[in-house]
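Handoff note, outgoing to incoming analyst
You'll be picking up this chain. Sequence as last confirmed:
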Amino acid sequence: MMELKLIGKINNTHGFKIDIDEAYKEALTAMDGFGHLIVLWWANQMDNPDMRKIMATEKPYKAGPDTIGIFATRSSFRPNPICISVIDVKGIDYNRGIIYTSYIDAEDGTPVLDIKPYYPCSDVVRETKLPEWCAGLPSCIEDSANFDWSNYFNF
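Most recent structure output, in case you need it:
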C-alpha cells in the first residue's frame, strides 16, 4: 500500500514561500546554511484521469520534435503528477514553519510532498547531454530568471 503525506503547501500570495504543516516543522531542524533545496510537489490542478492518460503531446517546444513523450518534458501532465523544483533559500522561520524563496514554479496552494537539501556533489552534473532541440537553454538556474522563455515554448 502506498500512502503519501502532504507536508505543506506553496504560498504565493505575498512573495514565494512554503508553509510547512505543524506536524513536520521539526523536520526543518539544521537546515541553516543550505542555499538551495529540492522541492517535490503534487500538480493538483492538473490531476484528473484524462490528464494522467496523456503520454505524448504535440510540439510544446519550438525547436522540438513534432510529437514528444511526456517523460521527455517537465510538464505536469503525467501518470503521477509529481513535479520537482530547485529553489533558493531566502530564509527559514523555524517557529512558524516557513521557507522563504525568491521563486517556485508552482501555483498557490500546491501540496508539497517532500523537501530535500541540494547537494552539489550529487545534484550537479559537470558534463550533461541534451538533445539538439534544447540548445540555447540557460546553463544554470540563476540564468533562467532573465531567459526569454517565450522563445522556447509554444504556449
